[in-house]
Structure formats: C-alpha cells, structure tokens
Amino acid sequence: MKLDYIENREISWLKFNERVLEEAVSEDNPLLERLKFLAIFTSNLDEFFMVRVGTMNDYIKYVPDYVDGKTGMNAREQLEKIYEISNRLYQKRDKVFEKLMTLLEKENLKKEKIKDLSKKELSYLEKYFFNNIFPMLSPLIIDAWHPFPFIPNKQLNVIVYLSNKKKEVLGMVPVPNNMERVILIDKELGRYVLLEEVILHFVKNIFSMYELKESSIMSVTRNMDIETDVENYDENLDYRQYMKQIVKTRNKLEPLRMEIQSRISEKFLDSLLQRLNLSEEQVFTFNCPINLSYLFNISSFLPPNVTTKLSYSAFSPVVHPIADKKHSVIDFIEKKDLLLFYPFESMKPFLNLIKEASEREDVQSIKITLYRISKDSKLAEYLINAVENGKDVTVLMELRARFDETNNIEWAQKLEEAGCHIIYGTDGFKVHSKICMITYRKDGEIKHITQVGTGNYNEKTSKMYTDYSFMTSDIEIGRDADIFFKNMALGNLMGVYKKLWVAPSSFKQNILKNIDNEIEKAKRGEEGKIVIKCNSFTDKDLILALAEASDLGVKITLIVRGICCLVPQTEGKTRNIKVVSVVGRFLEHSRIYSFGVGEEQVLYIASGDMMTRNTEHRVEVACPIFDKDIKERINSHIETILEDNQKARVLEANGEYKIVSSSKSERKINSQEEFIREAEKNIYQIITEEPKVVEEKKAVKEGFFKRLFHIS
C-alpha cells in the first residue's frame, strides 16, 4: 500500500540535484562558483544515469516483477518519471548556462560561436585545426565494410550524416580525450571556442568525398552499475585480481542514454538508435555543451584579481594547536577527547597522530578501514612508515568504492608490498565504516586510541566535505574497536559491541531502540526529541518508526542533504517532523544521530546514512559522544544549521522544497559561513607571522597545554 508520506527514491534524488542547479542560479554565489555548481549538477546527473538508471534497466530485464517497496512503482514507471523530470532539468540547465555565459562575457571571457567569428579568425582557426587537431583524429564511416564502433562511456563524438551518388552513410569522429578542450581565439579579450565545436565546424573537410547533410555532437552513457560481489569464483584467485577484471568490464556495458547537442532529423536519429538499441525516450537533446567539466578550470583563463573577485573568499582550515610538532597527539587524547570539524579545521592532527604512532616505540599496531583515499595520500605514507618501523599494520581496504576501484586496487598493492596486512571485508557487504585503532603499551597495560569519522581518510575531500573526526582513549570504545577489527579479520558481521553501533548487527537496531525510547517519553507526557543529520534517508522501517513517533508527539528534525523518502508535515503521521536540506559551498557529509535532551541526550556520529543499503548491507560504525564540551559543540552546529536562512530549504507536505529566506529585519545566516567565522576566531590560530603576535600566541598555546596536562 502506498503511503502519502513516502516519496520515491529516484524522484527525491532528482529534486536534490535540482537544488544543486538552483545554486548555479543563486546570485548570492560568486559567478565562478555558480559555474562549478552547474558542472556538478551535470556530473551528478551523469552518475545517476550510470548507476540508478542502470539498475532500473537491469530490473526490467532480469527482475520483471520488481516493485518499489515504498511507493509501489515498477521499474518502467520509475524510468518514465525519471525521463520526464530529466528533460525538464535539461531545459532549465540550458537557460542557466546561457545566463552564466552572458555574465562571464562581462568579465571578458566569452564562449564564441564559430559561425560568428571574423574571416581572419576563421582562417586562424582553420590553420590551428589542421596543424594541431586533425593529426590526432580517427574519423570513420559506418557501412557494410566499416561496422558501427564501440562507443566508450561519456566519450564525445562528432557525428555526421553523409551521402554521395551511391549511398547514404553515417560518419563519426571521436573527440580526443587528451587534448585541451578550451581553445583561445583571442587571449587578450578572453574569447574561446571548444574543441568539439571546432571539429564539428571543420568536419566537412574530413569527409570531403561526401556531401555533408547533417552533423552534431553526441555522447553515450552506459550502465556502470557493475556487480562486484562474488559468489562462485575461483577461491585461489586474489580478490584484488578479481576486481581488476570486473572494473575492465565497466565501459563495455549497455547504453542507457544518448545526449545530443542540437537537434538532428528523425532519419539521422533513427539510424543511431537502431545501432545503439535505444528508444527515443532515452535521447536528450539540448543546446549547451554535453560535458561541462571544463567549467571547473575556466578561472585559469582569467586574471588572478578577477578570479578572486568571482570566487568564494579565500579560506584555509584552522590547524588545531595539538598539530604542533612539539606536542604528542597520543598524550593529548589520553587526557581529553578530540573532535575535528572538517573542512573548517585541518585534518593535520589526525595525520600527525598516525605519524606519531608510526614512530613511537611503545606503539604495537595500527588498524584502519579505508574506503576512499587520495592518490598522493600522506596517511598511506605514514602507514608504510609504521611497517618499516616494525609496527603491525592492518588495512581493511574496500575495493568496491564506486569509481574509486582502480585507485584502491593500486593502493592495496602498494601497502601490501610495503608489508601491511591487507584484508578486503566480506562478500555482499561493503565496508563503509571509518574507524582507526592504535594499540600501545604504557605502564605495563595495553591501551587504545580510537578514531571514528563520518567521512573518508582523504586529505583532498577533507577540505571540501563537512565531516567529523573523533579521537578518544575511552576504554570501552577501544575494546569495541579491537573486537571490530578481529571480527572483520574473521568475516564475522554479527559481532556484539558495548558502545559502538555496528551495521549490519546493531546500527539500525539501536536507532529503532532509541526511537522507541523517545516514544515512551512522549507517552508519559515527557519531552521526546530526535535530531538526525545524514546524506540520504530511504530506509522504510526507519521511516515508519519516525512516523509513529511523530504521531505520538515526538518532535523530530531531519537534516538531509540529498534523498529523503520521508515527506513531513502530513496530517496524522508526520506533522511533528521537519526536514531541512542544506546545499552550500561545502558538501554536507557529516552524520549525527541524537535522541533526547539535556543530561539524558544520546548522541552518536556515524559513517552510515539512513538507507537500507547502509543499515543492512554495509559495515558501518557509529560512535557515542560522552564528552560534555564536544556534545555542546555538535549541538551548537545543529542549531546553526537550523537557523540557516540562506542555503537551507525546507521540505513541505507536497514533496517540494521551499527556499528559506530571511526577512529584511533578520540577520542573514549561512551556516557554513558561520562555521568558517567560528573557526577563524579560534583563539589558538596564528593569524599572522608578525614576531610580537607569534610570541603572544605562543603564550596562549603554552597556557592551553599547561591547563590540559595540569602542569603548574
């Protein structure tokens, strides 16, 4: 039975991506940032088709009886709705692109239409084409002797419809991936054209033996939702080798979508559709460039002062004073729990913790789960250093992190060759948890430092995603972490833990238990309160539990950046639920689970979202926060987000998101900008290198550490 307070997952995701597109429209954002949001919207939609639309197509083929358990829609009905909404979003994107190009032109950077160039400019471009582009091209015709080629996923192609006295044929010119797409016509005036449009203009010269009837630019999107779990494979084969084979198959999967830049005739289109085995509903035609990734680097064609003016104000993460090389991070955490708030605070203290552990004689081992790490990872360097210094290093490397498989495979091999013990989790369950444990001996006792995070151990994304990194010497959390890594080494997913919530054994179960606790409070006439912050919310069991709690009077606030299948404010069931989404400068990525108020508040941070895939089909870890100061700090972050009247949107009962706007009398609050200011006001940050200020800050630091370690 369809419930009126549950939204379809795919439709909810498309609404999220529309919120990203709205940031490209928002005049509150600097122009270059608006262009980036436009490019992000496009790359998001690409991945959505590769994965989610790929899954729906698989259902139609292999699971014809599939029906969405939340909304009752079958795969065909969902695809029809996806195509309808996507077409509308493409048309909206066209208008946004044109608007932003007009604004960029005022800053002396103009995307030119080749037909509008002067004769002199066309002559220059023609020489450039034949000298620099033509030698790199591999044109082909398609006929009985030249079969239709395999078109790689998202490869740009100039396509042509040709004729001569004997026949009509299709032709194709793949656009080289290793060439600069932005070609300057006039560097001084900032006028440019795109590589694929240059090839399109001169394509008639390439097929000179034919009459050119039509031409356009085209791209094919393929199903990239590969199955990476193993059931019946050679047990003597290393799982890393298996994953290498699987990843190679990705670009060979079936087409799902064809994008065309400018309209072509029905005859031309039908010829392509037949060869690609696509239907007309899978074709999307628009005017702006198919691939907008070049917008991420468009600032390189502007003077530095203009780039500064058109970008967000410069910001560097604040470095916590414990990152000072003179102080021990391990000794600090023995005294007091430490919370880092990315990207407002630097990842450096955690990296220094691993570096220190790799060098200290009393450290016995380092164990860590890795889902995504950067290609030039300092963390990996420190883990290798630890092995070289005789430490036992265990890395649970998840090879199935979508689109990062190759990077993870390479790192797994490097770490293994360095002497790290590498394990890969277990079949059917991705290890998405972010947990690290350092074991050392002190005063004859075994001690643990445990770190649990909401985001990946990736130095690059720690500067772009909002995440928490929590470090503690809590004995019971340390014991749980030790049990966790032992269970992972044995393939035991049903371990028992005292403090940590671990999926699939206890994460969802504990969330449901705490929802029930708040329901019992409400029944007794006490205040029941639940606050959850996550990236996506799709788990039906949890939706039903929150609806029941709402109906009984529990006040519930959900801060959900992306998909939210729970529709709030519906009469009878979700009237006490508020859903807020923030799309801003940084990607909201932290997960917080809060139940109750005051001294009785239960507060956890976690790696997992409220999605069935996380709660039941992945290994996730949630960690409790006991430290009063850290609790207050996280609660203050929640309050600031809920006060946001610039980047926040509220989900209404009709399933639409309404922009929260401030009145003229209200102070404008952008939560992420507030967090930047909060970090920059940190008393321990050294803002300037002036000698007298440095001395003052040194004194402040010394006082801080004396108080921390009770030094008189």
Q: Please, how many helices?
A: 19
CATH superfamily of the largest domain: Endonuclease Chain A
Oligomeric state? single chain
| Net shape | globular
CATH architecture of the largest domain: 2-Layer Sandwich
The computed structural class is alpha/beta
Query: What is the CA-CA span between the terminal residues?
Result: 68 Å
Quick one: CATH class of the largest domain?
A: Alpha Beta
CATH topology of the largest domain: Endonuclease, Chain A
Q: Give the tally of structural domains.
A: 5
Helix content: 25-40%
What would you report as the Rg, rounded to the nearest angstrom? 28 Å
Q: Unreliable runs, pLDDT <50, ≥5 residues?
A: 230-236, 683-694, 708-712
Number of strands: 27
Mean pLDDT: 91
Q: Which band does the percent of strand residues land in? A: 15-25%
Instruction: Please describe the biggest sheet, giving its number of strands, its sense, and whether it closes into a barrel.
Output: 10 strands, mixed
Overview of the molecule:
The protein has five domains: 1-106, Up-down Bundle (Methane Monooxygenase Hydroxylase, Chain G, domain 1); 108-235 and 255-278, polyphosphate kinase like (2-Layer Sandwich), CATH 3.30.1840.10; 321-499, Endonuclease Chain A (Endonuclease, Chain A), CATH 3.30.870.10; 507-676, Endonuclease, Chain A; 682-712, no CATH class. Helix content is 38%, strand content 21%. It is built from 19 helices and 27 strands. The strands form four sheets. Strands 14, 18, 19, 20, 21, 23, 24, 25, 26 and 27 form a ten-stranded mixed sheet that branches. Helix 1 packs antiparallel against helix 2 (31-62) and helix 1 (9-25) packs parallel to helix 3 (75-105). The model is unreliable at 230-236, 683-694 and 708-712 (pLDDT under 50).
